[in-house]
Amino acid sequence: MLKVISKYSVIASAVLLSISGVDASQEAQNQPIGAETSATVTTAIAKRAKTTTVVNDKLHTQVQKGTATSAVRSNVYTSQKSSSDLEQEFKAFQSLDFKNVKNQTRADMQKHREANSKLPKSSGKAQKNGQNHLYIHDAAVLLFDDLDGDGNYSQLRVDFDVDSPYADYFDVYAELFIRRVGDAQWTHYYTTDVFEIYYDYSSDEYSVTTRLNTGFPPGNYEVLIDLFEYGYSGLVDTLSPYDDYDLTNLPLEDKTYESTGVTSDTYVDNVKTEIFTDADDDGFYREFTFTFDVDTQSSADRDVYVNLYQRNNGGSWQFETESDVFTVYGYSSEDAYEISGSWQSGYPANYYDFRLEVIDANTGEVLDDVSPEFSSLLQVPLEDANNDTRESNPNPPSSTTSSESGGGSTGLVTLILLGLLGAWRQKVKR
Fold first, then answer.
1. Domains in the chain: boundaries
2. Which of 32, 49, 33 is nearest to 41 (CA)?
3. Taking the model in full, what pTM does it have?
4. b/e map 105-130, b = 16+ CB within 10 Å
5. How sure is the predictor about 92, in pLDDT bands with cuts at 50, 70 and 90?
């Protein structure tokens, strides 16, 4: 059984798009966030996951810089109606997302791969050492979130260790499948990122944590893992419930069967995250904008506001800001809203998860509460302005600055004076 440390950390598996960026002036905090143009913006967009949501595909997330310079968080937030059409933007994004292949059966995926893949079936290492040059050594499953106490969980974490009998590095990835015990077909629910393993070291263990959103009635489920070597289409190894009993008889149900207390006809459908301003080029940004589309099945318009929370490294949720009240109109894509933030101090460089809580402005009822349903809200690389600075170089390289002017009477007078100075120096030496 693998021994791992549970971390609520996700690298959003979205394909990133680049668009024109904006920057906020730290000195003029009364200026609207994003009022100035600066570096390229990194953008991720996600639609509400219908069946499963991957919550964590890395075992560890480490703070990249030291601790916060201040225990008190300082920030600037604004909120306003957005002109974005998130439905159209998501369609454009989806066409670029190579991992958008959920809910296919394992048999269909294998058939499609054999018929359409242009990649070689196996690597030179496999041909030299045999197909057992890579294998899944062990796996474990941990279950979380049984909110109604009925013994069925809505979140599972699959930990597995890929090894090789040869002292060499390999780039691999895995496809994960799930089915109810007794069913014939395996349903794909996640493809990992490409990750590197070395020999039979246990330090390269991999973890995928998933929340079940819809389509999983209470029952016992099982998981299967297919392993591939990156760049090659052939299946390298499979770990099934017949190989490891930890992968079977998992009491699960999706979150709709859990008594969460949040039942509503109003919900968040799309979320876009934009991050910008990275003065020290360390990959952590200090400004961001969340744009979201709230839809309602009600025939009447609804006035709502949104609470924004953040956390890092699986810690407790910290309240950040409350948006202004805005109106949602059915399934309209023209009522998108946005919250923009600029962090000044109290936020160390890290990967932050965010949470949106939609509140009825008239009754105070919680209408929706989302976080892992949207990959764009997870593992956002941020830091505050105090951390986002370039460190001065104590030993700067040698440099010179020269200027020149020529011609005219001034140049002639200067030459005469220099000549007289030279003659005087010669006289003094004598």
1. 1-298+328-352+372-391
2. 33
3. 0.60
4. ebeebeeeeeeeeeeeebbebbeeee
5. confident
